[in-house]
Known about the structure:
By secondary structure, this protein is α/β, with parallel strands linked by helices. It has two domains: 4-117 and 310-320, ATPase, nucleotide binding domain (Nucleotidyltransferase, domain 5, 2-Layer Sandwich), CATH 3.30.420; 130-305, ATPase, nucleotide binding domain (Nucleotidyltransferase, domain 5). 36% of the residues lie in helices and 18% in strands. It has helices at 41-56, 97-105, 114-125, 127-131, 188-191, 193-203, 212-220, 224-248, 263-277, 279-284, 310-317; strands spanning 4-11, 15-21, 29-34, 64-72, 76-77, 82-83, 110-113, 136-141, 145-151, 154-155, 252-256, 300-303. The protein has a five-stranded mixed β-sheet with strand order 3-2-1-4-7, with helices on both faces. A five-stranded mixed β-sheet has the order 10-9-8-11-12. The protein has a two-stranded antiparallel sheet with strand order 5-6. A hairpin with a 3-residue loop joins strand 8 (136-141) and strand 9. The two termini are 18 Å apart.
Amino acid sequence: MNERYSIGVDLGATNLRIAAYCGGTEFLDTISMPTRLNEGRDCVVRDMCDAIQSLTEKNYGGRALEGIGIGTPGPLELPEGILRLPPNLPRWDGFNLRQAVETKLGRPVEIEGDANVAALAEQKLGAGREYGVDSLCVLTLGSGVGSGLILDGEIWHGSTGMGGEGGHIVVNSGGSAPCGCGGNGCLEQYASASAVVRIARQHMDGAAPATSREVALLARAGDARAALVFEDVGRSLAIGLTGLINTLNLPLYLLGGGVSQAWDLFAPSMFRELSSRSYVYRLTQPDNVGAAKFEPHKTNIMTAQLGSTAGLLGACLLPFQQKAPRSGLREGSLAHQ
């Protein structure tokens, strides 16, 4: 990668980050700005393209541009690049993001779901590289719950690009909290940062802090009601992981995003519940459950390594990936990727 560079975009509902990259886990250059959702999607695309263009005008030691990659909240229909009812991008349903960006830039772009690019980065540059595994699942516990699957070193898309929506596994069939996807009882409503705050308010008679981090601080300080919130999070994660583990039997499941920093608070209930629910996990659980040590030929559940840069790194990696059709997509579906 040293003789060429890429540009990656991490399109978030709150922040828009753009970077130039030529390898490793560091960037050549970065641009960050608020995502101006309230001003409409054309405004967001314009901001994105202006930042990309400004990076392409720099020299970077004479390196040639390999390509441009974009990670976006989904669901995302591929190969077209059309967003389908994205819970975190209201009023973007049916928007052809690929076409809009390519038209404005006058050049092709690679486009992918944000959790998928985070998983790609973890496999190529993070935990997957450290532990020597080419198949893993990442759950990102942020404002929502995203998930990405890497199978045999490649992103698993499914037949239309919407594979791996683990955040919308139903973990509470009687749940009353409506999900942005249109359903009820999704993992996203019980293990995301916004869910932590909502559940805390229920436990604490509406007097809960404003952020999941503040709820965690209370729990560590001995507040029993705050501690119960993370016991709930752990149980919900276990239910979601049960379906993933029983179905996929992968060697590594990584939890990332802001809520994962409360690992010490939710992991005990998660592992207890998981052992009682998943027979595949019981058969393959590590000798030292919960330890930050990878055990070969076991089902390892650990925290992700790359933190908040995973999505941007993964977007930067996209142009360097092979372009042949793969991962179950329709014939020719990656021709634009």
